[in-house]
Amino acid sequence: MNFQRLGIALTGAHDSVEDRQEKTGITGESKMIKKAIVGALLASGLLGTPAAAQPDYADSIKADYDKSLASLWDHFHRNPELSFREFKTAARMAQELRAVPGMVVTEKVGGTGVVGMLKNGDGPVVLMRADMDGLPVQERSGLANASTV
Predict the structure, then answer these.
(1) Which residues span the domain enclosing 48?
(2) Which of 18, 81, 106, 130 is deepest in the core (most CB within 10 A)?
(3) Residue 2 lies in a domain
(4) How far apart are CA 100 and CA 120, in angstroms?
């Protein structure tokens, strides 16, 4: 088997530094660059931080999802409405937004759009946007919550 053709270099303890560099393609300069990159990543905390570390609020989000967001997502997925025909979807979204204390809701923006405004004092404004329309595609997933559009 031609290991070099596969990008695999085999070196042995008896190989000289030059032989290893020739077989691996790694020179002293590229080793220094690699060390610099690894050092920078360690210094920045990217390599020292576990990738699966969960934020402090992960449990709260999971509780909200389990309490109501999962069933809401399931409802919207089962009952999609085509673009500019999202009347029931918009009404349900407005209902859900009104359940948030302090939320000011405006309906029929641009036809079927819904805007929820939650004020939180002085400071920057944060905008979140989402599409509510479904696509006219027959879902054949076989799942219980399959789209019915």
Answers:
(1) 1-53
(2) 81
(3) yes
(4) 13
Nearest Cα neighbor of 136 from 128, 125, 147, 144 is 147
What is the Cα–Cα distance from 12 to 61, expressed in whole angstroms? 53
Q: Is 41 helix (H, G, I), strand (E, B) or coil?
A: helix
Say whether 106 sits in a helix, a strand or coil.
strand
According to DSSP, residue 134 is labeled P
Give 108-121 pLDDT, tens digit per residue.
999 999 999 998 88
One domain, residues 27 and 45: yes
Report residue 62: phi and psi, to 5°: -60, -40
Residue with tokens 């641009």: 110
Which element (helix H / strand E) includes 141? none
Q: What token pair was written down for 31?
A: 């080793």
The secondary structure element, H or E, covering residue 142 is: none
